[in-house]
Each structure stands twice: as structure tokens, then as C-alpha cells.
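Archive entry. Fields below.
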Amino acid sequence: MNELLENLVKSNKKLTKKGEVASYIPALENANKDDLGICLADLDGNFYTAGDYNKKFTIQSISKTVTLMLAIMDNGEKEVFKKVGMEPTGDAFNSIIKLETTMPSKPLNPMINAGAIVISSLIKGKNKDDKFNRLLDFVRKITRNQNININKEVYLSEKRTGDRNRAMAYFMRDVGIIKGDVEDILDLYFKQCSLEVNCVDIANIGLFLANEGVVPETNEVLANKYITRLVKTFMITCGMYNGSGEFAINVGIPAKSGVGGGILASIPNNMGIGVYGPSLDEKGNSIGGYGILKELSEEKNLSIF
Amino acid sequence: MNELLENLVKSNKKLTKKGEVASYIPALENANKDDLGICLADLDGNFYTAGDYNKKFTIQSISKTVTLMLAIMDNGEKEVFKKVGMEPTGDAFNSIIKLETTMPSKPLNPMINAGAIVISSLIKGKNKDDKFNRLLDFVRKITRNQNININKEVYLSEKRTGDRNRAMAYFMRDVGIIKGDVEDILDLYFKQCSLEVNCVDIANIGLFLANEGVVPETNEVLANKYITRLVKTFMITCGMYNGSGEFAINVGIPAKSGVGGGILASIPNNMGIGVYGPSLDEKGNSIGGYGILKELSEEKNLSIF
Amino acid sequence: MNELLENLVKSNKKLTKKGEVASYIPALENANKDDLGICLADLDGNFYTAGDYNKKFTIQSISKTVTLMLAIMDNGEKEVFKKVGMEPTGDAFNSIIKLETTMPSKPLNPMINAGAIVISSLIKGKNKDDKFNRLLDFVRKITRNQNININKEVYLSEKRTGDRNRAMAYFMRDVGIIKGDVEDILDLYFKQCSLEVNCVDIANIGLFLANEGVVPETNEVLANKYITRLVKTFMITCGMYNGSGEFAINVGIPAKSGVGGGILASIPNNMGIGVYGPSLDEKGNSIGGYGILKELSEEKNLSIF
Amino acid sequence: MNELLENLVKSNKKLTKKGEVASYIPALENANKDDLGICLADLDGNFYTAGDYNKKFTIQSISKTVTLMLAIMDNGEKEVFKKVGMEPTGDAFNSIIKLETTMPSKPLNPMINAGAIVISSLIKGKNKDDKFNRLLDFVRKITRNQNININKEVYLSEKRTGDRNRAMAYFMRDVGIIKGDVEDILDLYFKQCSLEVNCVDIANIGLFLANEGVVPETNEVLANKYITRLVKTFMITCGMYNGSGEFAINVGIPAKSGVGGGILASIPNNMGIGVYGPSLDEKGNSIGGYGILKELSEEKNLSIF
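PREDICTED_STRUCTURE:
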């Protein structure tokens, strides 16, 4: 398997030239465009790695899968889906239009920014710090990595330039979907996006989802079958931005990407995968990571369809 | 299994009172609101049935899965997806907005009406009748039922009242996505929607998809793994109208519904299911059929996630 | 005055190079790009002309002002505005979006295509020919020109390529705003757009509006103060496509343009103006005609504001 | 004239029962629903009044006319209209959709909230207070009323509940239309809306516009012909929210309304009118004020069309 992964990294390296590193904040722009790495973790406890699998990157939108689980456990599924929908959307991840045209107004799903901000607003805690610490603790347990922390430079950049997210948050407070201090809610959102991880961490999240909410080895139960299945479903229907449908067809694996260059993938009852490659295609997905997952899925017949 | 199915039909019968039979054409309005039936066909050749499994109904939007396969085999995947996208949409199945706002203009996917009309326009044939006959032949082979035919009353009703579809077709001809005589293209579309089937026929389509394009028993190869997988993926991401995301979460099975009351479901490498119940929920999906599939999925652990 | 007009034609001639002749149908494409002419008719019976004032061109969207008057007289204001609104729109003249998003669905005003098609559908007559003949008769009386007729080549071209208009018409029949045979309604619409006129004819329409519905000289009363004022108001708020607001600010005269290159202008209780210049700006308004009207308004202080 | 105005107030009093007082902030909700008053000021120096002409109310959106003039004088017309358009819109005054769909993104006109916020951001001054004081000074000079000030309660309410405006402002900062501290810009916007005036003040603004930028009596020149004409044009095309087109047809006078219940009207080279009646129709315009202006326009033939 290690050899297969090495080959996949090698054969997809050329794709990285065709993409672009995210440029909306300086910290991301400095990434190494041709980095490419993968970690695959299966339920038997095996870890396979190749390429730049231990390089650090910010988790960005991949965090939406984790906060969704926590918000459901904090509030119950019913409360959560009163405020955010379950349907994919043909609009951009940062589009504000449907908030105005959907009645009653609520974001279509928790994977677009508006929906993810709602989810962040539902994380419980005594105060802003407590909320973040609960999230951080949850991520550390899932990944079995106590060293995960935020990248301060990225966090501050996100905060400084996050006006589109502010626009959505204020719109949603205006129509009553979110309550409380908008800057506090966004602060948690910017922090969750700035969590620094590597491919192994992401593979562990995928493994946790594949294992239906039980952390392998520690056997700690942090979520349940229903919640982890729900997350994997959202990954298929809306995990890869406006390329989700195409990815589902071409790869057939539940996956969630982030503009930091990571992709989280999870094969139900089988394995978790973390891929990293900061060169993005025009939809915001890691171009090399997409290629690796496509070939891996074909090679190992991993499609769920 | 037969007993389980009988129980599912019984326990979901009450749901039929909460829905409404489609009313946009008289022929559909006359359906028996509390009809409910199911047929399940597995790859071992077993057929299980319960309730009104042999009542006839029109296939409606379920036909979109069949024409998609034929259009891809007629034109190649590349040509087809130049003219229709692969992405789910948060808009209604008959919405025309995205045709104007998407550049270059093309329907987001083949499961919404605009996309399905494009697909119908791509079916090859010497003339209008030849095109329909090729489609009919394809359906009859997949279902192993030579008696399938159109319901003339429904067909004529669809034709008479299909102005929204005409609007979309003319818009698409204006921007160059479809070519040829619009009424001829729509005639094929209305005919495909008016094909009369029962739960066994639908289960057979599901079985064909589960079996990756090979007709069981006859072993005739009518499609391939890639095409049938693609269809199942579209069923998950956009098969149940604006309730696709929720259905994927709650049921987790590739499915396609029609306003005639049918639902086609396919469990990869396992089985095909046809359900019929003309009482629809507010999204246009069979309300009793949805309930049956949900319980069946839980009972037999059929979710692909 | 004749000298002033000659100078205006001369000084604005250079603008014609910056625009483009309408190209969606061949007949329009053949127009002489640097043609430019004007006719000004005042209530004292004076006619002033300059440049290509007697070249023929098709009236196109300018006809919307005339059919609106006829439809109101045929049906009453109340009936007409049940089916079309009175408000300007920020969308394109051929946009279909608002038909789907406005509830109850009706075109925002009679100057955009959808609204004008509704208006055409309201013209009374025993049959399709009778309706057109009534309209033709009305136009001939207003212009005091019995020779006005349709340009067959343009009419047939419009009919052949009018799919966007068909899309809107079928959409509107689907939601119940228009009734009857869509092709018949569009036939009248395409014919009204294909009426062939020159600057003198257009100036006479403007004079008729300025004179509150009374034909000068013949003193025939064909409309009334309220209707002609209503038309002039629509000309200010939505007469110049997506440049209506800017034109109102820069010129301040009620005006309606057509892609044939004509502009109709009317100064209340004062004069009517017809301008012709087939070179269009990016909004579809005669670029030279706009320039002439702007300078003329400044020179003679014609703004109504 | 005083008698005519008295009669108009009396005859339109019954309309106030059909409307509703603005309820989005408590301070507005406390207004007297059946208040109705008018002041008419002509260029000969006459002032005519009737009803509750001296009751105070907050100027709200009427302020958009004043800030527009100041912003143009501060920045030049060219700079201002780089950032805001000149076209009317069929969307609601607080709609955010067009900001996302228009490319390059800019509000369609300065009379909708997004456009007015841009305009406020362009008012010059050393700091936030200086900017407001310059605006206040401008308003006081135009109205010849040194006692005009903000209603603190309304101002604080607006600030507390202005999340929709915040959403638009952050969106616009994200796309680069506005620069600087959003809360500071909105503070000026909320303050300008909270200026407390009566019908006489509003009539004076109308008179100033009618007099082309010269304050009567003092003869102070505060604006010019072009700018005041531009404002009157915007009042016709977009001054009465989504009822602008209908008002232009029915009344034919440049007018701008505010949800405080005021309407500013200006007859070019003739007179200014201020009307007050806090009972609003469903579009947000004073229902009694609309009625008075309609009858007055008919009686005195004031339509500009």
C-alpha cells in the first residue's frame, strides 16, 4: 500500500502546476505549491503514508464536519436542522442570495459558509473561550493528537479579511437564525478554520467517521452511528464545494475539502484518508489531492456506489 | 422478507393520508390515494412483494435515469456533460432561473426538468418515432417486460399542460444548448414520462443499476459499471427533488422518485427496489414510499454511508 | 432650428463609430452604421429635420408605447395592470428571472419584453389578422402616414429567432398571465416590432403623446391625457433599457428606444422627436441618437426636471 | 390654497386607517397613526399649511436626497457614480441579491439602502463627528432651521437593530465598494435617518430642489442646477420604494418618502412640499400623504408629464 501511495503522489505531482494556491490571505499564499502528501488509516490500525504527509496546513472548511458533530450533540438534531437545511445547493459556498430568497430564511446546508456559521453559533460553552476549548478538545481526541492548535497568523488574517462572512452573519442575525454577538460567533468560526493539522490528523478524523463515532485504540465513544453517517452524507452531497456532484461521480467517496489544501475522506466501515496539496483547482479543491483520490478509488474499488 | 415488506406497507399506510395526489393533470389526480406497494429484487434472483405492487402507474421523473444512460451511450459522457452539469441544485425541479444566471448556460444536472429535456434531445434516432422506440426497447429490455407502453391519456395531458417545460426548452434553444424542433423534443420527453409501469418493473431497473448494467438472467449487457454508478450517484445527490439531501441522510440509498408516486431505489451490488404510493409529500415524493424505504434501510442496514 | 439639428447630427456622427449595429438578425445587421438623422415636430405644426431623417428602419421596442395605449383602451387600465406591473426593473429587458421570483407572477412593466408580450396578448380583434390590422390602423392614424407597413424580412427573422420571447410567453401561459395560442400572440408581437418607419413617423408619435392623445391637424382624439401621460412616465422610468435612469438624469426627456436604432422622445405639451442611428451602445440604445438628444436637451433646456 | 390643503387633509384622513405605522423600532411604533399634515412652499415665498404640519418626525430615507447632494459636491459626480449606479431596481430597498449578481458589484442607485450607505461613506470630514456636523449644517442651511437635530431614541434604536444594513455594508466592504470602519459609516447613516423634522422643513428641502440649489431668501448657493435636477430624477425613478413607478404615473411629481411617515416633493421651478402621515401602505409610503399628493397634483395640474 505504501508503494501504491508513493506512486499516486508521484503520478499526480504534475497536476499541482495547473492549480493555484489560495490567495485571499497572505498566510495561505506562502504555501509550497507542489507539496503533495497522503495518509491512509484503516480500521485494522494500519497507517500508510507518502509524500508531504506530515506537513502542517490549516484545516479550513474541513472543520465544518467536526463542528457539525459537536453542535448536534450539544443541541440535538432537531434543533440544529431548524436553523440549517439538509439540501445541497448550486450556489457558491459564500453566496448570500438564498438567505434572502428562501422562506423561512435558513442556509441550505452546514457545508456552505452561512450554514457553518450557524453551526458555530450553536456550539455550547460558558463563554467564547470555553466554546473554542470544547471544540479543540473534541478535535484533539478524535485525532489522538494533543498538540493540535491554531495557526495564529492565519487566524488573524481570516479575522481581518472576513467581511463576506460578517455580511452573512449579520444578515442571519437580522432574520433571527443566529443570536448573540456576531464577532464572538465569527471568532470561533475563524479559529476553527485556523486549526493546524497534517495528513495523519485528517486521516484520523476520516477513520473516526468510518468507525461510526468511536475513536480507534482508545475506544472512546465521542459520537454515534447516526451522526457520523449524517456527516458522511453531507460530504458526498456538498463536501467539495461546487464540484461535489462531479467528485461523487468520479471518485464516489465521502470527502470534504478546505482551501488550505486538505481533503478529508472516509470510506464507511473501512478507512480514513487525509490528503494535502495546496494547489487548488478553480472550485477550491486540492487539484493533486483530487487526482490521488480518484486513482486510489479506481485502483482499490472504493466507490460507495 | 415478504412478511417484513407486508409489515412495512401496513405500518406506513397511515402516512398516505397526510399527503396529496399530484393534481396538475387529471389523469394523475384519479389515482387511489391510499395505494401502497413494494417490490424488492435481489441479485440472487429473488423477488419479494407486498401491497399494491402490481398496480400500474406512470414512471414520470424516474425515466430520467433511463434516458440518461441511453444518452451517454449514444453520445459519450463528454458530449453529454458539455450540455448538462453534474451538480445538485437548491432550486426547484422546474426552476428556470439558473439557466439565465449560470454562464455558460447549462442545466445543473440531468435530474431537474431542464437537464432531463437536454438529455431527451440527445437520444439518437432516425426520427421522433425511432427515438422513442429505441428508448422503449431499452426500458423493456432492462425491465424484462415487453408489455410496457405509454399511458396515452397521461401523455396527452402532459403535452397539453407542459408550458413550463416549453419555456425551459425554448430558453435552452435560444442559448444553444438544445437544437432541433422543440415540440419534437418535448414529445419524447412527455412520452418517456408517460410510460406505464408497476413496482416489479421499477425494482428491475434498480436491479439493473445494482448489477452494473447487466440484465440479470438474460445476462444482456446494456450499460456498464461507470454509467450505472454515475446514475446511482445522481440518485443520491439529486434524485428526490428538493428533499434529496434529507433522504440521503435519513435513508442513505440511491433513489429517484416521480410524481406518479413511484420511487426507484438501488443498493449497489445488492438489490433493486420499486415502491408505489401516489400520495405525495410537499416536495413531490411518495410519502408512504419514503416511509417504507426509511424503515427498510434501518431494518436491513442498507445505507451506503 | 434646422441649423441646430444639422450641427447636432454632425457633432454626434463620430459617436456612431463607437457603437455596434444590432446583430441578432441579419436584416438589422445590414444597416448603415453611420446613419444618423432627426425629425422634430412641435405643437405649432413645425417640422424640423436633419441628416438621415427619412431613412426607413424597424420600430422594434418603440412599438411597446403604441400597443400599451391600444391595450388600455381595449381593456381598461385596471385589467391591464392586473397582468403587468408599473415598476422599473434593474434586470435586462429579456430577463425571465423575475417571472419566477415575483409572487403573484407578472412582468414588472410593459416596456420589458415579457410585459410587452402580455400587452400584445390583450389587443382585441376577431382574429390574429384583425388584431394586427387594428394596431396598424392605430399607428397609421397617429403618424398620419397610411404607407406604414411591416418589413417582411425582419418580421420573418424575428419569428425564426424569437426563442427567448417564446420561453417567456410559455412561462407566462403556464402561470396564467397570458391566455390563448402562444405563436399567435408572438406573431402579433413580432409584427409590431417589424413596422417600418422613419424619423418623421416617430416624431409624430412623440407629438401625439405631447398633445395628450389628439392627432394634430386632424384633431382626431385617439387616446386621452391620462393614457398619454402614463406612457410618457413609463418612457422616463423604463424607456431606455438598463440605461433608463442614466438617460433620465443626463437628458431628462421621456424617451423610448428600439434596437432598430430609433428613439422616440416626447416633451409634454411641446414637441415630439424622432431620432435614428443604428449604431447602438452596449445597452442597446442608439449611441448617436442619445448624444443628439442630450445636446438638444441642454441647448433648448428641455429637461422636465 | 390653505383651504384646499385643509380639504385634502380632511378627505384623505380616512386612508390612515388602512395603513400601519412602522414597527421595526419602538420609537416609530409610538407615532399617532391618524396624524396627517402638509406644508407647501412656493418660489414666491408663500407658505401654506394644513393639519399636523408642525409635528416632528424622523426624516429616515428622505435624508438620502440630501446626502447624495453633499457626496457629489464632496467627490465629484464621476467618483460617486463609480460606486453607485443610476438605475431603478425592481428589488426591495433592503435587498442584498443584486450586490452579488451585478458585476462589477455596485448598488443600483443611491435611493436603496445599499446605495445610500455608499453615499454616506463618501461624505468628507476629519472624523465621524465632523462628517455628521457637516451634514447637519447642510440640512440646517437648506431648511433655514438651526434647531434641527437627531432624535436620540430613534438613532439608538436604528443602531441596535440595523443588522440588515450591517450585512450590506460588510458585503460592500468585502467587494471594495466602501472603505473604512463599517460601524463608523453606519453610525453616520443611522444619524442621518434620525434627523427630526416637520413638514415645513421638508417643504423647504423641496423648495431648494425646485430652486436649483439656491436657498430662497438667503440666496445662498449650496448646490447647482445639475445636482438638484439629478436628485429630482432619482426621486421620480426610485423615490417611493417599490411603488415609484406607480406613484410617477398616478401623481407625476418627484418625491421621496421615509418610513417615518414623511414625503418630500418638489415641482421643478415651482414649489416644494412636505407631507407627514405615519400610517404607511404595504410599500412603506405614507398612505395619507400619497393620497394628498395625488389629489393635489390633479387639482393643480402639477404632473411633470
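CURATOR_NOTE: The radius of gyration of chain C is 18 Å.
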